[in-house]
Amino acid sequence: MSVPDVDHGAVPLALVHRGDLVESVHLGHVVVLAPDGSVRDALGDPDVVVWPRSSLKPVQAVAMLDHGLDAAGEDLALVCASHSGEAGHLDVVQRLLAGAGLTEDDLRNTPDWPLSPEAAWLRRAAGHGPAPLTQNCSGKHAGMLATCRAAGWPTDGYLEPAHPLQRAVVATAAELTGVPVEHVTVDGCGAPLLSSTLTGLARAFGTIAAAAARGDGSAPARVGRAMAAHPWHVGGTGRDVTAFMAAVPGLVAKDGADGVYAAGLPDGGAVALKVLDGSARPRAVVLAAALGLAGVDPAAVAAVADTPVLGHGRPVGAVRATFGAPA
């Protein structure tokens, strides 16, 4: 039986140590961009084509702002979020909808439980089931619906690729990443998912973070400021994406399903990564190492990256990156 060549030159990014043995190895790709957009460092293929998954949400939010979305602060951060479904997250989603004259019944994202185990338990205990409101992408969908209202577009069919909203998102993604959108499929929440390269994804995040640092009034700057100022709304309690942004002033970061992460720095530098097996386990470790290569003090993110391997409830090893900034 032949096995297709699907690794595209992926290399080991993280090793899982248990006791005195390496138990597992996570392969993947990483790109680190300098402030001028050039490739500073790369492991694997920096131009590998990937599905950015939820790491694309800040780019989608830029398109929404450019077409009339009126949101700022924690509201805009929630539009960019894969939120944990905690009460404070749901309040903002409902506020976004109400501001556009809509309700949660207008959401068309996939019903799901909150990502937060505690929030999911509370919902079950109250006799409720999975819902579009509590699914982690409901902020993005509320933003999409509010954009449609602002632009005079129909809310029906807002998830169809031919809808004006989704065509606008494609155009913005191509502009910010500098990469044509060559592949389109459906993301887990039901929205169109657009392909990019790791370098293109990093380029978009560097643009967003640098614009926010300059303090201009552009849509990328507004997105970057909202995310950096309201990291809890982008993720939630105990989430590493929230902790990274809290630890590094001006950092704009977004996690994505199936092993994706991207982050931009105020100087325009940026990183993006893809764990080939789709695992979330090494993402924080690899992101921290990549940020170190981009100039972030490793000590600032060491606690966020700490990923112990447990045996009988206590650490017996750790997940460690195969690379990092010089000591």
TrEMBL record:
Source domain of life: Bacteria
InterPro entries tied to this protein: Asparaginase_II
PANTHER family, per the entry: L-ASPARAGINASE, PUTATIVE (AFU_ORTHOLOGUE AFUA_3G11890)-RELATED
Name by which UniProt lists this protein: Asparaginase
Lineage, highest ranks first: Bacteria, Bacillati, Actinomycetota, Actinomycetes, Micrococcales
